[in-house]
Each structure stands twice: as structure tokens, then as C-alpha cells.
Amino acid sequence: EDRLKTARKALEKKTVAGDGSAPQPTGDAYAAYGNKIDALEKQVQQQAKAVENYNPGRADQNAKQQYRQIMAQIDALDSAIDELEDQVEGAYRGGGLTASQYRALDQRLDRLEDTVDELEDRLEDILERDDGGWDDDWDD
User: What global pTM score does this model have?
Assistant: First the structure.
């Protein structure tokens, strides 16, 4: 059991610190991920405007289609954020990012993910407030 713990700790150190053969952290990797986050932030802002402008009005096909489109775009953003989080973590574990760079990027991505979750909630709240006689459970 002690050997297993020792081996696990050694593996964690190698995974987090790199084995010496991994590229050393550079500002280029950090900047590249920062640029990707900037692009996602712009897309989230666009979706925020779409959510704010969404008005289900009445139970017509156009309102349902618009709801589905906005929700699909929000879901796609959520997936893109998750994928970028995985890439950033992989770069950190591979030695391409320092711990402080990783934390900074991860915090930005967490805030962005929270914003996307809030947009989804806000869109659903708009439907509940003015449902126009139709249910948002169309995809359940």
C-alpha cells in the first residue's frame, strides 16, 4: 500500500511538473489560449444579446425555432468551453503552461462557463414568464 502511494505521488509529480522532455512554458501558448478565450467571450456576448432580444410572443413555429437555435448555440458554446478547458489542462500537465498561467486561464474559462449557464437559465426564464402557450420541454 505504501509503495502504491509512493508510486502515485511520483506519477503526479511527473504529470504536473513534466518529465524534463516537455517543452518549457512560453508566453506564446498562454497568449494563444487567451486569444481563444477572447473569441469565445465575443460569441457569448452575441448569445447574451440574442437571449435579451428573444421574445416568444405567441406559440408560433418561428418562436419555437428561434428558441431552439439560441439554445443550440448556447449548448455549442458550452461544449467549446469544455473542450478548451481540456486543452488548457493538457498543456499545463504537459509542461506547456506554468501553474499561474493555467490558473488564470482556468478562472477565465470557469467565469465564461458560468455566464453560459446563466444565459441558458435566462432563456428558460423568459419562456416561463411569457410562455405563449407552449412548453420548452420540446427536447425532453
Answer: 0.71
